[in-house]
Design a protein that fits this description.
416 residues, mainly beta, Pectate Lyase C-like, 28-stranded parallel sheet, 13-stranded parallel sheet
């Protein structure tokens, strides 16, 4: 196809606007004019409204209305958010009482202290939806006391020198549930660092402790103890440390027609306690069931690593797996009593530097119990297992292990 060249007829007469459009300086001028018009339009009305300028941003109270607390004792009687403005001290009795639902208390990095070991720094009874966070308590009988409360979060507290229990969570007049305690440090309590308790036929359930540290108490690091027909169930201890306590690091006990069940201890350090590392004890018609201890380090406890007493009532459906027990006095894992049922002990490593004690003991029960794939090193006796225990073969040889026979068994236990 023949191409027809395009030509601009320059001799055609142009009106002034056309000349301006084809002129470079004219194009620049029109562009500037359009930009200026757009900028002026973007500015809005250039005539300000009458009166002084009004604020356009929200105040802090509008974002989150908060009530300051600058003296103690203090009672929170209304729902809302509260915060400390300075350190507070009382002569005796309670520091702050929470007497309302839907309360957030921010200690704001300050300390609540007492001149005595009476009362509680913070206490609440029979209330819902409470958060307490970010601060310190000194002395009192308890750092924080929660009785029959629901949906509570405690985070970032340091509790020192309590005359009784550092943190006390109870169900005594009503059920208590959904309690979260995280990133708390409890030290130098005169009794227990943390106590979970129920009584009067009430239930404490759904409790989670995570990333907490309890040390240097004159009693148990943590005690979980229902009594008087109370029930405690569904408790998780995750990534916590219980160290250098005068008696036992972790104490689980059930008595007086009570029930304790479904407790998980995971990734915890239980170290250098003056008695046992962990004790599980059923007595006086108080059965215990569903205890799981997994992936924990249980080291240097003076009179033993894990001790289970199932003489007076049943301790059943318990798992001890993947734990490292090093240099505990006497025995590593000792389960005694005729009512031990359904224990599953697997994949644990037990070591000592002095030759003494027994690695794993489970002798008296004739019920089904299982011991698989454990390693016991430098104990006077590696295993003491009764007739009711199903176990992998116990291998005591050294050097290159055989690829056949007991050493090759997938459930073999080892002892040296």
């Amino acid at each position: 196809m023949e191409q027809i060249p395009f030509r601009i007829r320059t001799n055609h007469p142009m009106n002034p606007l056309t000349k301006l459009l084809f002129n470079r300086s004219g194009i620049h001028a029109i562009t500037a004019l359009l930009l200026t018009a757009g900028q002026l339009a973007a500015q809005g009305d250039l005539t300000p409204p009458p009166g002084p300028p009004a604020p356009t941003m929200k105040s802090l109270d509008q974002v989150e209305a908060r009530t300051p607390i600058d003296s103690a004792p203090f009672t929170i009687a209304d729902s809302g958010s509260y915060y400390l403005t300075k350190p507070l001290t009382v002569a005796d009795g309670d520091g702050i009482t929470i007497d309302a639902d839907n309360v957030t208390l921010d200690l704001n990095g300050f300390m609540i202290s007492s001149s005595s070991t009476t009362g509680s720094a913070i206490q609440a009874s029979n209330h819902w939806n409470i958060t307490v966070k970010n601060g310190f308590t000194q002395k009192f009988s308890a750092g924080i006391r929660l009785d029959s409360c629901k949906a509570v979060r405690v985070d970032g507290l340091t509790i020192r020198g309590a005359g009784g229990d550092g943190i006390l969570v109870l169900a005594s007049s009503s059920f208590s549930e959904t309690i979260s305690i995280s990133r708390c440090l409890v030290a130098f309590a005169s009794n227990r660092g943390i106590r979970l308790g129920s009584s009067n036929s009430q239930t404490l359930r759904d409790v989670c402790l995570k990333d907490c540290q309890v040390s240097d108490t004159n009693g148990f690091g943590i005690a979980i103890t229902p009594m008087d027909e109370g029930t405690i169930e569904a408790v998780t201890l995750d990534s916590c440390t219980f160290a250098r306590n005068i008696t036992t690091g972790l104490y689980l006990s059930c008595s007086q027609e009570s029930q304790l069940r479904d407790i998980v201890v995971r990734d915890c350090m239980v170290s250098r306690n003056r008695n046992q590392g962990i004790v599980i004890a059923a007595s006086l018609n108080g059965p215990i069931e569903g205890i799981t201890i997994e992936d924990c380090a249980i080291n240097g406890n003076k009179t033993g690593g894990i001790s289970v007493a199932a003489g007076q009532d049943t301790v059943s459906a318990c798992r001890i797996t993947g734990c490292n027990l090093a240099n505990n006095g006497d025995d590593g894992i000792h389960v005694y009593g005729e009512e031990a049922r359904g224990f599953y002990i697997e994949g644990n490593t037990l070591t000592k530097t002095d030759v003494s004690g027994t690695g794993i003991t489970l002798t008296q029960s004739l019920y089904a119990n299982y011991v698989f794939r454990n390693v016991c090193m430098n104990y006077l006796k590696g295993y003491d297992l009764g007739l009711g225990v199903t176990r992998g073969p116990i291998v005591t040889s050294f050097g290159n292990l055989s690829t056949v026979g007991a050493a090759a068994h997938p459930m073999a236990n080892f002892a040296r």
